[in-house]
Amino acid sequence: MRAERKPRGLLTLLAAAGIALQFSGDLFLSTLALLFWVLAMWAYYPCVLKRMWIPRFWTLTLLVALGSGLLIGPRDETFWGIAISTQGLSAGALMVLRGAFIFALAAWASKALANSGLDRLAARFGAGSLALSAGVAIELLPELADRIQEVRTRQSGSGRRGRWKSAYLSAVNLLADCAMMADSMAKKDVEPAVVIITGPIGSGKTKAARELAAALVEHGVTVGGVIQPRSDGGDSYFLQDVATGRRWPFASFDLNRREGKTGYIFSEEGWAIAYSQLKWASRHMEVVVLDEIGLLEAEGKGHWPAFRHGFDSGSAKLWILVVRRDRLDLLSRRLGRVAMTISIPSDNDLADIALSLKENIIEAGIRSRPMQE
Amino acid sequence: MSANDKNTRARFWAQAAAFGALWGGVEITIGAFIHTVRIPFSGALLAAFGVAILVAQRQVVPMRGLSLATGAVAALCKSMSPGGVILGPMVGILSEALAVELALMVAPRASVSALLAGLLAASTTVLHQLLSLWAYYGGRVLDLLFEALDKVGSLAAGGSATGWWAAGVMGGVIMLLGAVGGLLGWRLGRDVRRIMDPVVLSSEDAIGISSPIGAEVVDEG
Hints:
The complex is a heterodimer. Chain A is α/β, with parallel strands linked by helices. Chain A is 58% helix and 14% strand. Chain A folds into three domains: 8-116, no CATH class; 121-187, no CATH class; 193-362, Rossmann fold (3-Layer(aba) Sandwich), CATH 3.40.50. Chain A is elongated, with a radius of gyration of 35 Å. Chain B is mainly alpha-helical. Chain B has a domain at 13-125 and 179-196. At the A-B interface, helix 4, helix 5, helix 6, helix 7 and helix 8 of A face helix 1, helix 2, helix 3, helix 5 and helix 6 of B.
């Protein structure tokens, strides 16, 4: 039985010496290099010699070598009545030897690299993200290979045009799935947690959000964001910064509202303030509070762009969203994973909830990040 | 590194992983099929598929360097191919990715860039073949190739230029395949964006605030 342990260092040295000998252009030295390399492969990697047996390749190589004897250089010798060039023939022989050497070298290098694990090798050279990414990609390969086969064999349309269209649509879906899968991989466990405060109209959701924010602040947590308290008369809403308590007029009841329209007229300036406050809070605070997520947000309007922007690119660990109970189903698909739902007025022990949020979400930090080093 | 940078970095490598796996999957499945049925220009066909994937990806995620990273991931996936020499195909994949990266550097979403990416990637397949020949047999093999082209031409009825014309036609077919791959990727990418935009509102898209219905400024007080 041959040695199990391969002398990689010695083989690398031999490979380097062999390559160096190729530069001389000397037929004898090239032959020597090939001989040593073949012997080394026979001793340690016999499978490489098996891989080198490709009849079509070697036939072509020999033809190239003989062709060079006929085509390159002056024809100074005659063999069996055919005028050939010794210069061309030796060049051809050199090409065959060099080809055989490089081929054997490449086969060995491929095997050695494959055995050592290219992803681990990439990690060793400081390309950790690439190695991590390659590891994930290799895990995805079987599933994607199946999907590619589906696209290739899918012929649901009628006629050639229909089949092409069907294959094209499958390809679009496959690429979209790929992009969305990547986005969800990147966000997995990197996303901030979402806590929802919900309840019917007038149940005190905004008040609960303010109290929860205050309780978190008491526990040393930094809290920002905006709430929308109702005015004393009840016909308008303010926008209030949670961190500073500063207020701006935001919405007033629309007396001339028509069927299907929102019941309030909003201040453009208020939206701009809310956007900038949320953006700032998402970058500088641990917790962001956002009041009155409703119909507009379900349509991707209102506070939604500010929320998505802050949620995707901010560093806040927790978002507390206030949602009316009858809008909860509509919004749940858009909000994704929800860590906790606080129902008002039944869940009224906000001090305990604040402590639990601090210990389980804020202090636990963002958990393992599959796509980050 | 800020959380924003971390998220961007995570997204970059996640996209590279998903699309690199897709390209690797194409190389393994469609590549195996093409090689088995011995379709001519198989290398250029696979390069066209690769270009289509990379161009479509950059339509959806216009991050600089992503094509090269995806190529590196796909090349590492190729290392999973059972048996055979893998270094050549890996270098081929990387050089195609580099060509696409260069072409998409200035305007990643423009159709002209996609076309250029296809042409450049296709030309790398020819270059890769020539370099492989040179690496295996040395510089003289290229002289031999050129002389052979002359000889083939002189043996044919059309004179010595015929061999070069034949080589030119083959080169043209390869470039055409690359161009089709680039433009197909551009179109695929646009359609993918149409699917994705309502689902993923990325930070770069969320630059404005949607005005609510009947918005009106109220007096402060």
